[in-house]
Amino acid sequence: MNGSNRHVAHFNWATLLDDVGSPGVAGFVDAIGRVNALAERSDGFIWRSGDENVAAQAINWPLFDDPRTIASFSVWETPEALRSFVYRTVHGAFYRRKAEWFVPGSGVNYVLWWVPVGTVPGFEDARRRVETIAQHGPTEHAFDFTWLDARMPV
Question: How far apart are the C-alpha atoms of 144 and 117, rounded to whole Å?
């Protein structure tokens, strides 16, 4: 696919240090709605799922066996639009404070992949992409920003 007929899908996940209703993670949890609304108003935003955790549990995805694991799933016009939202908006401020709310990661916690324009990817597709990047590292099928930057410098 060339740049004119594809968008980029993004799925990420992390495990909260405490239960969703606990005071220790309230600073993050209380801001989710505002940050999601900002995403929806951002340049290049196409789509986001409304409730990743419910859908992931419905397909019996082991990634979500821990009820403190949360996720987001979205589609963007370009990787640059996604990167701008993730790192250059209030989302970036929350990202920089992730150690306050999330269990430290031990590897990949997000995956990107190309989707044809007009396509809304499903959770089974996200699951396959997560499994691919976890098993094989970044590839054309499932990649991260580092892999993408090495092939398409920004």
Answer: 20
DSSP state of 21: T
End-to-end CA distance of the chain: 18
- pLDDT of 53 strictly over 70: no
CA dist., res. 64 & res. 83, Å (int): 25
Question: How far is Cα 152 from Cα 121, in angstroms, rounded to an integer?
Answer: 23
- For 126, the enclosing helix (H) or strand (E) is helix 123-136
Structure tokens at 132: 């691919």
Strand ranges (E), the chain: 6-15, 45-48, 69-76, 110-116
Q: How far apart are CA 128 and CA 132, in angstroms?
A: 6
108: nearest Cα among 146, 74, 75: 146
Cα(151)–Cα(145) distance, integer angstroms:
10
pLDDT tens digits for range 57-90: 656 677 778 888 888 999 999 999 999 999 999 9
